[in-house]
Structures are given as structure tokens and as C-alpha cells.
Amino acid sequence: MKQKAGLIARVAIMATGVAGFAAVSPSADAQSNVRLYGLLDSGLTYVSKVAGPSGTTTGNRLSVDSGDLQQSRWGMKGIEDLGGGMKALFILEGGFSVANGTAGQGGLALGRTTVVGLSSPYGTVQIGRRKDYIDEIATWYSSVHDFGVFINGVHDNNLDRVGGNRANNSIRYDSPDFRGLSANVTYGFGGTPGSMATGQSLGFGANYKYGGFGVGFGYWQSRLGTGTGMTNASSDAGATPGGGCDPAYGHASDVCIRTWMVGTSYRWDKARVYASWSRTLQPLARFGGTAAPLATTLTSAASSGAFAAAGSNNDATNVFDVGVNYWVLPNLKLAAAVLHSRYSFVGAPATGRLLQFNVGLDYFLSKRTDLYSNFANLRASHMYNPGITGGAPGRDATQSAVTLGLRHVF
């Protein structure tokens, strides 16, 4: 009986402790606004003139690809009301391939976004890993919204961040909307003892919307971190080590990328037109030769070597992106875009040029599921062709690609 009484007493004490802990801890009700979400995008893709294993031959490729329009991902986000207009928030998001199940962003389980933050009437602060403001500008004013990864190559192999790059160890502030005007500042800490500048990244931007009209800009710069060879330990996870951000080209804390994007759009009735211009500088890009390659010797991989988009001697790039989309039916959208980019190469008098034409359609089976098909043709002169998707093409200055995909959002 004494043992039984003692057991009852211990259970009572434990119950009292649990009740006390619950009184000072977040309750189940406080977490009821946590949401699980995701997106799956996969389809059949045909690409002409893709480089073979040796890099000196070409062949057409037919494959199942993941994320031609949007990268597949899953995530959780939540908001807790703290009172007085203040809220706590978090976002955890990881990317993956539907085609083979592998994790995206270099194999990181939560490589897309990992942030915790606070929001108030004075703005929102987020701490962790996430995209910078150029990603918003690109989504609103470039053809990435209509054509996804099909435009990354012509956009300086994504060095201008049109397809979304991320900063580690960052603090991001977004202002509240004031009569259509909003602004952003993002700072990435390099985390190097004795040097605030080493591995540092910094971005800012602003946007204005009024009715169907919008205009905005974003700026970003990255500094070299510590590292050897092709490894750059910068807070900017998108800094291309094969281009100007190779530590072999400069010293820790040197600025290796400066890029900005401006854009505008106007929507009326069923149509929307948009245009953007981006400019990217690689101050550390080194001398890489005096003559641009011929079409018979196109063997360079993406973002590496001389005369490649975002390559080792590509010191400046300008990208012009103009497009239109039109809703033929409430659930059928047609889209078209023309993209042109120009590349300055250290030590070469000729300007590299890329010209790409895109057309596409998107048919919504429901609010969460759509079928899409896009076609693109890319032409290069005085430089290596970066390819439309799936890596650089082989020994040819032109490439075409078409995809038929299915996207589902949950």
C-alpha cells in the first residue's frame, strides 16, 4: 500500500510539473497556424546539341527533368501573434528533384530557406538563409515567371540572380508597404575573425506598385571569403567559383560580384507586358585570351574558363529581357519573350552576344494543377553557348529546347 501511495504521489507531482511547464510554454493552440506546403514540377524535355561525356561531341537529349518551370520544394511556415501588432515567424524549405528524389541546393536538406524572424507594423526582420531582393524583382519583371530555368543561361548563367540565389548567415529587413512603395536591405555576415569584410555580402532594393503598373530595382554585391582553389567561403551561396569569385583571382574581402536589376511591368485586362535590364560586374575577372572561340571548338562547361557566360574573363554583362503574356481563356495563358545579353571579355576586342526567343502556354486544370509547354531557341556569337537547360551545348553556337511539364501545388 505504501508503494502504491508513493507511486500515486510521484505521478501527481509529475502532472503538476507538466501543467506548470504548459503554463509558461507555447501551447498546441499557439502552433495551430503552422502550415505544410509544397510544389512538384516535372516533365519531358528535349534539348538539341548537348555536349557528350568527352565535351567534344554533341547529341540530342530526351529526358525526364524536374523543375523546368519552378523548382520542386516542400516546406513549413508558421506565425505566432505576440500581441501589440508583433508576430514571430519561421520558414523551413527544402528543394528536391522529382525525377530522382535527390535534394537540391547542393544536397542540403533545407537548402532553399531556413529563417526565423519578427514582423511588426514597422517591417519584418528575418535571420538565416534565404534569397535576396533581386529574386522578387526578377519574379515581377523578367521572363523567369513564364519560362523558369529556360532563361538562366542567357541571364549570365544566373550570375545576375534571376533564378534565385541565396545568402547564408544573413539578416534581411523588409519595410511595410507605404502607398505602394516598399524597400529591402539584406546583409550577409562572412563570419571571419578579425575581418568584417571577408566573405561579406550586401543587397538592397525598392519597389513601387500602383494599380496594374509596377517598377523596381535590386542591387547585390559579394566579397571573397577564405579558401583555396575553387572554394570561396562567402556568405553568398550563389557566388560562382568558376568565374570571378575564385580565390585565386584576388584576396579575401575583395569584391568579386556586383549586380543590379531594374524592371517594370503593366497589366491591363487579360494582358501583361514586362521588361527588365540587369548588369553584372566581376571586378576580379582575369585575362583569359585574345581571340573568341570558334563554333568548332565549343567545349567549355558552364561558368568556367574564358569566353563563357560568368566565366573567368567575363568582366561585365548586360541582359535585356522583354516579354508578354495573355490569358486567352480563364485557365489558358500564352507567353512570349525575347532575351538579349552582351558580354565583355578581358583581353578581347569582340563582344560576346546571346539571343534567345521563347514561346509557351500554360493550361490550368484546377487552381493547384497545371500543364505547361515551353519552347526556346538560343544563339551565341563570339563566346561559348551556355545552353538553355541541362548544361552547356557542344560544338555548336545554337541550341533549341522544348518541354512538356506538369506542376502541382499543395
From TrEMBL:
UniProt-annotated location(s): Cell outer membrane
The keyword Repressor belongs to this UniProt entry's keyword annotation: no
GO BP terms, alphabetized: monoatomic ion transport
InterPro entries: Gram-neg_bact_OMP, Gram_neg_porin_domain, Porin_dom_sf, Porin_Neis
Secretion signal, residue range per the UniProt entry: 1-30
A Pfam family matched in the record: Porin_4
Keyword entries, A-Z: Cell outer membrane, Ion transport, Membrane, Porin, Signal, Transmembrane, Transmembrane beta strand, Transport
Membrane topology: Multi-pass membrane protein
Domain of life: Bacteria
Limits of the Porin domain: 20-380
Gene Ontology molecular function, alphabetical: porin activity
Broad class of the protein's primary localization: membrane
UniProt GO cellular component terms: cell outer membrane; pore complex
Subunit structure: Homotrimer.
PANTHER family in the cross-refs: MAJOR OUTER MEMBRANE PROTEIN P.IA, PROTEIN YDDL-RELATED
Name the record gives this protein: Outer membrane porin protein
